[in-house]
Amino acid sequence: MSGFPENFLWGGATAASQVEGAFREGGKGLDTSDCRSGNFGVPTVDKIKWKYRLMTTSRFQKALSEEGLGEYPFRWGSDQYHHYREDIALLAEMGLKIYRMSISWARIFPTGEEETPNEEGLQYYRNVFAECRKYGIRVYCTILHYSVPVNLVQKYGGWWNRKFVDCYVRYAKTLLENFHDDVEIWLPFNEINATMFHPYNGCCLILPDECAQWKNPFEKSMDKIYQAAHNQFVANALTVKAAHEIDPGIRVSAMIAWFCPYPSSCNPVETLMAIRQQQEECWFFTDVLSRGYYPRYMENRFRQMNIHIHMEEGDLELLRENTVDMISFSYYFSSVATVNPDWPKTDGNLKRANVNPYLHRSEWGWQIDPMGLRVTLNWMYDRYQKPIFVAENGLGAKDVVEKDGSIHDPYRIDYFRQHIKAMEAAIADGVDLIGYTWWGIFDLVSCGTVEMTKRYGMIYVDCDDEGKGTFRRIKKDSFYWYQKVIASNGEDLE
After folding, report:
1. What's the pTM value of the predicted model, to 2 decimals?
2. Crossing angle (nearest 10°) for helices 119-134 and 163-179
3. Known catalytic residues?
4. Is 9-487 assigned to CATH 3.40.50.2000?
């Protein structure tokens, strides 16, 4: 008998910038993801280095000057803009209960400042939602999944400018007003703590060219980063307020990227280090969004760093009165806290991590830790006592198409199996876990390394790092395996 509740939401997740493509079709404006280079010819092992992951002034200007596809993989993605009917039919065949997707801000408001939305953009998403509804697939919709109209960046800098809040809220209200009947769960910001680790994605921070040589490229920008975080908190609260005014039954979620830090030993100092890491990198964001106030540990941290956040009158009341209904998070890897400065490091989602010698790692260095998911779920639920949703979890790997067209990915199935068992155990622990969306259900352009080679999907997309291919969809072995898992509500994992 399955340990999952009868109404558990088995699903898959994507982001508009990584799958849609069609970056100049349907009235869409240029956005910040469209400006991230694929670094063609650079070995994968180097793509994770600061040098290639930062957005610098010259790199940004070069992207703006290139009108075509160039070396910018997000501009073509997985071409879902032209394949959405086929894609949603495949999700229905798989048996998906819920599809986590995002909407492109620049497809609705091409410059971010229009008074009225782009009707072609609205119609595209009406069509997508209609297809989901046809097959009985619920929708979990992310309002902002990193990608911001470049016009806003050019005029106002980034999220530290309060003008961003006004533009975002106009956009968010437009979505809520048009699609509140189509969406099960709304998420204002994907991985809202990303602003700490990937500030270009998180808050549109563009750095001087020489920053790639700095030990900490963001050190001189912490005022901007924390101010951007505050403005996003305000925008999130205003979105919750608008959503509940439109329909009190709407559920709005917070979401963070979680890294599950352990102390590397029983040294009490390392235990405290792990707690501090959790507080500053993760808890801070969900504490504000779910509890409605700035925690004292961060107020102390701001004083130590001499950081002064500008708040407008009514901000704190707004945060207090408009908290989220549930908590979501992404989980890909865990790390360790250590006093040893020479401890070996490896790559991970958004940030590098200290190596845990008890864990295996993926081809891209991400530490595979199913038990860490169970630990995280217990921490999350214990802290907030609100429904929990695992919004992202997955394995990036190289897949091979066999001569007969089949794709065997036992490594993905095994990864998935172990993490499902961890979720089931967490439910038995008492966690109110309501859903899980595998990242990304289709192959898509990797957000971290900007390449297709790092494949996450259970559905293969015939496209290489340079956009060459037929974009044909092919079911992997994991497709049929997940189909069986969903049909059995998590009972059949063989």
Report:
1. 0.97
2. 40
3. 191, 392
4. no
